Every structure is written in C-alpha cells, then in structure tokens.
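Dear H.,

Thanks for agreeing to be a second pair of eyes. The structure we're designing against is below in token form, covering all 374 positions.
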C-alpha cells in the first residue's frame, strides 16, 4: 500500500460497514418481503466488501478489529425510525456512487488496471430488482420513488432553513450592534429580522409548493383529456415507452393494450413515464410547508437575539456571538448526515463562514455608527 492508501482503505471500510448496517435496518422496517429481501442481499454484498477490506488492513497492521457502525449511521437509523427510512435509502444510493468513485481512485493511485466494472456496483440494486428477484413495477416504483422524493427532502430543508435564519439574522444583529455598541435598537432589529425573514421564507415555500402542485395537476388533467379524446395516440405512446425500456414490440403492444383497458391505470402510467410526475409530490400541503419553513427559520434566527432580552452592550454581543457559533457548529455537524464529511471539519467551516459574515456586517455597522455620531 502507498502512504495514502491505508487511510483511503480505512475510510472505504467504514463506509461499507455503515452501508451494511443501514441496509439491514431498512430491510428490518420494510413491509414488502421482496423489497426487504433485496435490501438484505445488498447488506450482504457490503458486508463482504467490508470483510475483504478489513483483512487487508489487518494484514498491513493498520487495524486490529472490525469497526462498528459510525455515529452518522446510527443517527440516520434513529431518523429513519422516527421519520421513515426514505432519507436513509436516498443516502444509501449516494453511498453506492461514492464507493464506486473511491474504488476507481484507489486503483488509479495504486496502479491497478481498471477492469470496466468499477461503476457497476451503483447499478447492483437495479440489476437485482430486474433480474434476480423478479420484482414487478410496483416494488420497483416504491424504491425509486423513495429515492427520488425522500419525503420532499424534509430533513435537508430543516437544516438549511435553520442555517438561513441563523446566518442572516446574526449578520443583521451584528450590523446593528456595531452601529449602536449593542444598546439601541438591537433587540427590535433582531426580532424584526426574524419575523420578516421567517414570513418571507414561509410565503416563498407556500408559493413554490402550490405552484408546482397546480402545474402538475394541470398537466395531469391535460393528459387525461388526451387519453379520452385520442386513446389510440396514447396507446402508441405507451408502446414506445415500453419499447424504450427494452421490451419487445409485440410485448409492448400487448402491455399497452392491457393498460388502456383501465383508463385510471393508463393515466397513472402516462403521468409517471411521459410527464415524469411523481404522485407523491402532490400530497404535500403548501400550508404545512409554509408553517414548517417559518418555524425552522425562526429557530435559527432567535439564537443571536436571545442575549439581548437579558442584557446589552458588549456583554450581549459576546454572548450572542458565542451562542450563534455553537448553533453554526451544530448545523455544520448536521450537514454531515448528507455529505459524510468529518463533523469537526464541517462544523468548523460553518462557524468560520458564519462568523466572517457577522464580522463584515459588524465592521460596516461600526463604521456607519461612528460616521453618524461624528
């Protein structure tokens, strides 16, 4: 192994251990036995890769014991138990891509020839569904749908919403504090910034969800009209869709005619395959999204304001900076649930960028305050 190889191999091993653990957890909570069996097989594949990597590292004297699942994997499992495993499945899909990329990188650094199969592991799940387990379209749709929608990426939106509130309001509070030495109007400005930002986020989220739903509903209605007025044309479209999936023309003709026998089934198929609309995206409430965005933004935005309820001056400024820095670090650590990066790296980076923004606005506020007073 090269000097950098042990570290890379160790990272890969830990990723595979986490993937095996999460696949097992997803399988344990999957109601469909065929889908659960699929995930258990994926867990076995990842466990096999992990065992192979562990033997190499143990032989090289780098590792003595197989590592346990990381805190990140265990946290994802807890989130899955409370919020559903859709987010976990999406993360596993991304892990497969990361492992494939890492495998190629390791081979290139060690001079091992590529065999052309390095990128195939990311497709194993789909291959098993199509070939080994004979899963039908319903099961396939369930897994693909979970990966694509991930509950509207609710967890990611939560983290980013709180981050927006914290960074924007901390910058505002520090700007006013710089101009007034932390006394006049900081609390009022902070609360106004919190309310204005949260309302703006809520309205933007409501408009986004509502407009998307209205657009999809209109497209679906048009598709139903076309199906009723020109069933033969829609049947030909279904034939082409099936043929594009590698199905023979004769079989595609049969499947299309079978689908057209049930207008609802044909419409659902055309909506999914032709329009690319996932019906799950229409179930979300615009008001629920708006209210959630409001409170998530407010949750982050309140942190830099809290000290000014209790005190003022430089004491309040320092406490506000410390409290905001702690919030930024927690948000940075939460982001690692999506990126897989080091908690300390991600958290410290978030603190650095957030405090830099606050320092700039504080300096500008200080300059403006001096000029006004002067």
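And this is the sequence the design step returned. I haven't edited it by hand at all.
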């Amino acid at each position: 192994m090269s000097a950098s190889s042990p570290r890379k191999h160790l990272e890969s091993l830990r990723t595979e251990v986490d993937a095996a653990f999460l696949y097992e957890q997803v399988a344990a909570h999957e109601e469909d036995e065929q889908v659960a069996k699929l995930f258990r097989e994926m867990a076995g594949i990842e466990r096999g890769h992990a065992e192979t990597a562990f033997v190499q590292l143990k032989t090289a004297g780098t590792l003595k014991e197989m590592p346990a699942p990381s805190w990140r994997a265990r946290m994802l499992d807890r989130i899955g138990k409370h919020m559903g495993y859709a987010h976990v499945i999406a993360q596993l899909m991304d892990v497969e891509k990361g492992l494939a990329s890492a495998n190629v990188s390791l081979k290139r650094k060690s001079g091992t020839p590529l065999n052309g199969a390095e990128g195939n592991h990311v497709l194993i799940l789909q291959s098993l569904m199509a070939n080994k387990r004979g899963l039908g379209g319903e099961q396939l749709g369930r897994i693909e749908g979970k990966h694509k929608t991930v509950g509207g990426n609710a967890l990611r939106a939560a983290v980013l919403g709180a981050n927006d509130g914290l960074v924007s309001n901390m910058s505002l509070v520090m700007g006013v504090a710089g101009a007034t030495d932390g006394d006049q109007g900081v609390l009022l400005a902070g609360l106004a910034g919190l309310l204005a930002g949260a309302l703006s986020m809520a309205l933007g989220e409501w408009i986004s969800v509502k407009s998307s739903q209205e657009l999809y509903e209109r497209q679906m209605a048009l598709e139903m009209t076309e199906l009723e007025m020109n069933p033969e044309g829609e049947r030909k479209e279904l034939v082409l869709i099936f043929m594009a999936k590698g199905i023979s023309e004769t079989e595609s003709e049969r499947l299309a005619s079978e689908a057209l026998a049930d207008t609802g089934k044909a419409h659902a198929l055309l909506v999914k395959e032709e329009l690319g609309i996932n019906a799950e995206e229409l179930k979300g409430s615009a008001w629920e999204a708006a209210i959630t965005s409001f409170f998530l933004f407010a949750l982050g935005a309140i942190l830099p304001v809290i000290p000014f309820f209790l005190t003022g001056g430089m004491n309040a400024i320092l406490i506000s900076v410390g409290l905001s820095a702690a919030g930024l670090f927690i948000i940075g650590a939460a982001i690692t649930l999506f990126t897989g990066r080091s908690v300390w790296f991600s958290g410290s980076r978030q603190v650095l960028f957030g405090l830099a923004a606050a320092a700039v606005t504080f300096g500008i506020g200080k300059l403006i305050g001096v000029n006004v007073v002067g």
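Two observations from my side: DSSP finds 14 helices and no strands in the chain. The radius of gyration is 26 Å.

Warmly,
E.
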